[in-house]
């Protein structure tokens, strides 16, 4: 018998002063049985950092044809495809063909560095992909925030971001841009 996803609920308040985006989101997150608290919370952080009206969680680990998050336009075309972790370069290339913008948020410290060394030359030719690597320990700190019911606040200002709750110290979400789209300034 297959294990079922565990449902988490999050009330997320976002104050993104860099993009002038201020909103409250009621999120329902299905955590795949093989997913860790760290990965789930990195998905929530990705949602907070890229939040838009039509950004939504997808099946991700449960479906190879869907990312962790995506944003579609009103016609159903995929505007943004967001992957969390260290996806295979073929998966990223396929996503680049399906979406206007692809974002990969890698985490895991040393393992992310090794992954990046292995895929960098193949991803350099892709024009619409952005790759971020979260700072050392960020994913673990985010994982410590995980609860079945969460009330979270995310603040983004001057290129820096923090995610926390009323009962915890905010986690500084720092990242390094490993690759930016070819058309970026």
Automatic annotation (TrEMBL):
Please report the organism this UniProt entry assigns to the protein.
Answer: Paraburkholderia kururiensis
> Which domain of life does the protein's organism represent?
Bacteria
Please name the CDD domains in this protein's record.
Answer: YaeQ-like
Name the UniProt record assigns to this protein: YaeQ family protein
């Amino acid at each position: 018998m297959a294990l079922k996803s565990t449902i988490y609920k999050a009330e997320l308040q976002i104050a993104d002063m860099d993009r002038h985006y201020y909103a409250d989101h009621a999120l329902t997150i299905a955590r795949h049985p093989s997913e860790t608290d760290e990965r789930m919370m990195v998905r929530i952080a990705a949602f907070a950092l890229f939040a838009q009206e039509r950004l939504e969680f997808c099946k991700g680990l449960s479906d190879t044809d869907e990312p962790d998050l995506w944003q579609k336009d009103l016609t159903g075309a995929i505007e943004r495809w967001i992957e969390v972790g260290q996806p295979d370069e073929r998966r990223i290339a396929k996503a680049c063909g399906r979406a206007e913008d692809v974002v990969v948020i890698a985490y895991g410290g040393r393992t992310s560095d090794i992954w990046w060394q292995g895929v960098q030359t193949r991803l350099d030719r892709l024009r619409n992909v952005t790759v971020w690597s979260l700072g050392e320990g960020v994913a673990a700190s985010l994982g410590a925030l995980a609860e079945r019911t969460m009330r979270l606040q995310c603040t983004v200002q001057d290129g820096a971001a923090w995610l926390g709750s009323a009962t915890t110290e905010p986690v500084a979400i720092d990242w390094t841009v490993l690759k930016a789209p070819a058309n970026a300034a």
